[in-house]
Amino acid sequence: MPILLFILVPLAELAILIKLGQLIGIAATIALVIATAVIGVSMLKRQGLAALSRARADVATGEFPVESVVDGACLLVAGAFLLTPGLLTDTAGFLLLIPGVRRALARWLFNKLMASGHVHAGGFDAGGGGRGREPPAAGGPVLEGEYQELDDSETGNNGKSRNKSGRAASPWRK
Length: 174
Hints:
By secondary structure, the protein is an all-alpha fold. The chain has five helices and no strands. The protein has a domain of 95 residues. The chain is 60% helix and 0% strand. Helix 2 runs antiparallel to helix 3 and helix 3 crosses helix 5. The longest helix is centred in the N-terminal third of the chain and has 35 residues. It is elongated.
């Protein structure tokens, strides 16, 4: 299927550009293709920087930037479409610059992936200091562990933790 797209899309683009060139002229057609690329890249840059800013804000608050990552991926594809000469690819690129279209596409892809059975999504509430956690919904293994905070008196000169006998303590034992 992808090979068929790599053959059909350029042929369709070529046919549209030839027909448009006959209707409005070669110079106007070339100017239109260049204008759509310049306008698209300008919009892409603005939206890409906004997505990056949102991702940084999410990470700073301890949240995983899911929406920003999806936006970034869609904007990457939009950029490729906008830089490819042709009106079909420009149309697809401009559609991906619309946030509602990106969200709908992401939701559709997520549903297709979940239905395929190759992707499992699950999560748990990481709050509460380790108490009241729910196991992952996907039924995967639950790993439990403990940690111990060390103060400066328990670390040696080289920064490694020491046990009571003065030997380097294993970070895997309590």
